[in-house]
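#struct-pred
JK: can someone run the complex with flavin-adenine dinucleotide? inputs below
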Amino acid sequence: MRDLLTGLLEPTPVLDHGFVRLVDAMPRLAEEGETADHAIVRAARVSYQTGTKASRTDRGLIRYLMRNFHTSPFEMVEFKFHTKMPIFVARQWVRHRTASINEVSARYSVLPEEFYIPEPEAVGAQATSNRQGRSEGLLDLATIEETRTVLRDQATGAFASYQGLLDKEVARELSRAVLPVNAYTEWYWKANLLNVFRFLQLRLDHHAQYEIRVYAEAMATIIKQVAPWSFEAFEDYWMNGARLSSHEWAAVLAELSTEQRDSVLTRLEDTLSAGELRELQQKLGR
Ligand SMILES: Cc1cc2nc3c(=O)[nH]c(=O)nc-3n(C[C@H](O)[C@H](O)[C@H](O)COP(=O)(O)OP(=O)(O)OC[C@H]3O[C@@H](n4cnc5c(N)ncnc54)[C@H](O)[C@@H]3O)c2cc1C
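RT: done, structure tokens with the ligand placed:
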């Protein structure tokens, strides 16, 4: 047996004071040559009994499950992370309801004076194409530096007020109300692989805010080492694949002649599995 988490338990620094640290995973131990993917394969083969053994390799089975949204076997693998992030990142993160969380209590603990100041290249103007994002390269250097100074001064002042209230023996649960959302919090976060993938799909995407995306990227780097086939399938089918509406797909098909459809199939002959090719054949109406 080998420990799948060897070399993966060191914290990965994220932003200026944050980190992502893998605490544990299930399964943690695996036979030589196996990964957490095999826990998924075993669970899937229980539901399919011997039917899939003959027809699919283990990697092929994982890709089939991911492609067709047979998701319950992915729930057999779990990850527990300890992460530290600005409160405004935690607010977005906590919207992913299918995880178990234990957060530091600012009713019991005094929060350290740690707050997030973006690097200059992360300070952007309000996006015009996407109303909730930020643009690159539209702000002059003076505005970027002023933004960072305002954030720093505001947070330093807030922490001074916090300390002032604590010094007067005001309850911690009330004193914390002066703290800004760029102050850091931390928590333990445990979720199964299916829900981790759901989190990653939304938070690795370029629409996600940069400050949560960097946490998703740090987690993804760890997860792909523990469950490499599942991660590969997640990237291929969920993350980097495209889903078209019926109108969009009908318009694409209308533009493709019979020869062009056959040419698509030929082009992918060496890339796709036999099952995938059959599915594509059906989609293309061939
Ligand atoms: C780019 C971006 C912008 C966003 N902007 C906003 C915003 O402006 N305002 C805002 O409020 N939120 C916003 N969100 C949050 C978003 O609406 C979701 O709440 C968040 O992404 C969590 O997604 P989820 O519900 O799929 O995840 P989870 O809570 O992890 O749920 C995973 C899946 O489990 C199932 N599930 C979980 N709980 C339930 C339930 N109670 N009932 C039924 N099914 C359930 C669903 O299938 C769900 O997809 C934004 C998210 C992103 C990524």
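RT: quick notes.
The chain has three domains: 2-111+185-239, 117-181, 246-283.
Residues 107 and 173 are 4 Å apart (CA to CA).
JK: thanks, will look after standup
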